[in-house]
Structures are given as structure tokens and as C-alpha cells.
Amino acid sequence: MVTRKELLALDFYKSRPFKGSDTGIRYMIGKESITDEEGNSNNVLMAYIWPEPFCFEATDKALIQSKSFPFSEEGLCGAIDYINENHDIIANLIKA
Questions:
Q1: Torsion (CA) 28, 32, 36, 40 in degrees, nearest 10
Q2: What is the DSSP letter of 16?
Q3: For 52, which of 37, 44, 58, 86 is 20 to 30 Å away at the CA?
Q4: How far is Cα 55 from Cα 53, in angstroms, rounded to an integer?
Q5: Rounded to an integer, what distance in angstroms lies between the CA atom of residue 15 and that of residue 11?
């Protein structure tokens, strides 16, 4: 289970993503800029989760799930919840 205490301060994510692992899964949280339908650019936190053993770049993209969250402390907590809620589903993808 990933906890807030294990992750870095929100300011860290402004310059680079954070990667970690937890019993059968790997995850990455980072800042990304998305453009809405009106052409406005917004910063969000993207949470990616995929099964072990490979790194993000070497994993089949079909096995990676993601979700965006507001770039805020609440968004970071939402990303943690997302990772924990999907842990078992992702960890079992390779076993299936």
C-alpha cells in the first residue's frame, strides 16, 4: 500500500516524475501539461500504474493504466488512492 508519507513534497513533481513500486506493481506520478478543447493549457498530476517487473519504458503500453488529477495536494492524495484501489487488478495482469 502506497502512503502519502512515502511520496515527496508537491514541489518535487514540478521538475520530474516520481517512480516507485509496491508488491507486484510499479507506478509513476508526474506533472504534465494538457490542453483542453478551448486551447487552454493546464498542469495536472498524471498517475501511471503497471505490473512488475519492467520499467515504464520497457512495459507493453497495453498494460499501463493512467489517470489525471489536479496539480495540488488533494490531487496527489487522489493519485495515491487511485494506485491503491487498482493495485490488485494491475498486479494480476501478468499472472492471468
A1: 160
A2: S
A3: 44
A4: 7
A5: 8
How far are the Cα atoms of 26, 36, 72, 74 from residue 55, in angstroms, in the given order?
A: 8, 30, 26, 27
Residue 80 neighbours by CB distance under 10 Å: 20
pLDDT band at 96 (very low <50, low <70, confident <90, very high): low
pTM above 0.85, yes or no: yes
pLDDT (0 to 100) of residue 93: 86
The rounded distance, in Å, linking the Cα atoms of 31 and 8 is 13
Residues in the chain: 96
> Measuring CA to CA, which residue among 31, 9, 7, 14 is closest to residue 84?
7
